[in-house]
Design the sequence.
């Protein structure tokens, strides 16, 4: 199943695992995500035979951990992780380069394309690659929507 499927009922969200560092409930993530985003030297230590999880807690330096409690830190990942980084140039949509700064500009100035519409159109055209681009290993639309809501609330 494609992570960006437009069929909402088919998207299964799993909340298995607890981060061994912060005790945050974590989300199961596909192996392909880690293979795509771990730095080469860290990838060499990956145990592909166990389940892996994504920790979204901002206060925690762990991005991924596995069923054996091996941790992969922000410094082990090729990209900055939106959930753990406040910089305006950090992507929220990793496939189509929607950063916090760009989303804010387009929302405040009511520019086209609208970030949500732009991402949905690309999903419809089967262009997204969230499993390999997004550290959370799933679609970014929820994150982009939350970013837009916070921009509207605080402005």
Sequence:
């Amino acid at each position: 199943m494609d992570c960006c499927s437009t069929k909402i009922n088919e998207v299964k969200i799993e909340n298995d695992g607890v981060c061994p560092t912060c005790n945050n409930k974590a989300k199961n993530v596909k192996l392909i995500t880690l293979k795509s985003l771990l730095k080469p030297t860290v990838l060499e230590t990956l145990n592909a035979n166990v389940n892996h999880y994504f920790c979204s807690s901002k206060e925690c330096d762990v991005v991924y951990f596995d069923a054996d409690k091996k941790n992969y830190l922000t410094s082990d990942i090729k990209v900055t992780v939106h959930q753990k980084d406040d910089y305006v140039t950090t992507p929220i949509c990793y496939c189509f380069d929607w950063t916090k700064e760009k989303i804010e500009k387009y929302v405040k100035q009511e520019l086209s394309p609208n970030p949500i519409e732009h991402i949905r159109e690309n999903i419809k055209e089967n262009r997204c690659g969230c499993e390999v681009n997004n550290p959370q290993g799933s679609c970014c639309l929820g994150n982009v929507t939350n970013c837009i809501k916070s921009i509207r609330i605080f402005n």
The longest strand covers residues 62-66. Residues 7-15 have pLDDT under 50 and may be disordered. The chain has two domains: 12-76, 82-153. The CA atoms of residues 36 and 100 lie 23 Å apart.
